[in-house]
Every structure is written in C-alpha cells, then in structure tokens.
C-alpha cells in the first residue's frame, strides 16, 4: 500500500516543490524513511553536472531514502511546457502503468512518500484528454494536500481545486498558504476566507515570501504537530472524504 500524501497546487509556480521538500525533510528528521516523488516533470537544466529537473533535484535532496532520478521522476522532459506537449516534442508518451509501478516500488522502500503533481490539479498527460494529474491522484488514492499560492485570485483557485479533489472521492487533508505576492492586499482576509471555504481541511502552514526557501527556512512556518499527526495516523489515510 502506498502511504503518504499527494501534493497539488492552485496553479504552477506557486511553491509546491518547496513546500513538499520541507515536509519530506521534516518527516525524515523524525526517523521515518521518506521520499519525495514527482513522476512527471517538464523543464530540465544542468545542476551539479547532471541534466535534471530542478524540482526533482530538490525532492531528491530532501528525501531520507536514496532513490535514483528515474525512481523519483520516471518521466522528465526537456521543454518547460505542458507535460503532454513536452512529451510530444520528444516523440514520447506518458505511460500510466509505468508511473504507478514506479511509485509503488519506491513506496515499498519507504515508510511514507510525498507525491507531487505538476502545475495545478488537472494537467493533461495526453493530447486526447483521456487522463490527467487528477486521475493520477485518484489512482493512488492518497489524501491530498493543497498548496495555495497567495496572490489575487487565490480564493477562487483554491475553492475550485478543493471541489475537483472532492469530486473524485479524494480527501483534502489540509492546505498550506504560500506567499507568492508579498504586496498582496488584504492577505489576512484571504486567509480567513480560505479557512471558511476549505471547510474541515486544516491550515498546515502560512509561509511568507522567503529569499531562500530551503526546507530549513520553511519549517518554522509549518504546523509540525499537525503534519506529524497526518502522516503518523493510519486512520487519517483511510478516512472517507
């Protein structure tokens, strides 16, 4: 059984990976064997002499279980664009069975896994629209943690995402507000609206805009006891939406 959570976001470039890496790092420090996985990643660069997606690099660095790049991200693409487009540019396709098998194999070596989606909750994985990142979350059946990028439009994006998560029979287990626009007007009122609108999903952190958002820098802004409860409780993973 895959145990852990699926991390999605209200949009792309809102800090999913930095939050995911911080959670992976925090859990690893408790003695759990934890790995961050990002099965589909678009956009690669040279890092430490390796051609790799920077999100995949960050998750691997945060993990307490040493995994190879192909175990963390079986599908990496060069172009920084929609994954199915990036795949088509390379004459490849994103294979559903391979992704699930890779995640299950990694999970067998871990106590918990944190699986990060790509972009927002519904990102296509093929041109026909037959399956997307929401389908991957449903395939895994993991509770979903939502990273809300704090900027204008955050409330609408968060509520729509929560609705889509719950419509697939998945449980929204919590959310983290990550400051994208530090000059955002009425940020506290936005947090209040999110708290009401997201219902019984607890807020697991309020992260300010940080100059260097490393796991260590983010950790003080996360609700560590709540995160530990989320990952330590088997009932949390089995609870109905």
From TrEMBL:
Pathway: Cofactor biosynthesis; biotin biosynthesis; biotin from 7,8-diaminononanoate: step 1/2. Its EC number is 6.3.3.3. GO terms for molecular function: ATP binding; dethiobiotin synthase activity; magnesium ion binding; protein homodimerization activity. Its main location: cytoplasm. Homodimer. Belongs to the dethiobiotin synthetase family. Catalyzes a mechanistically unusual reaction, the ATP-dependent insertion of CO2 between the N7 and N8 nitrogen atoms of 7,8-diaminopelargonic acid (DAPA, also called 7,8-diammoniononanoate) to form a ureido ring. This is ATP-dependent dethiobiotin synthetase BioD.
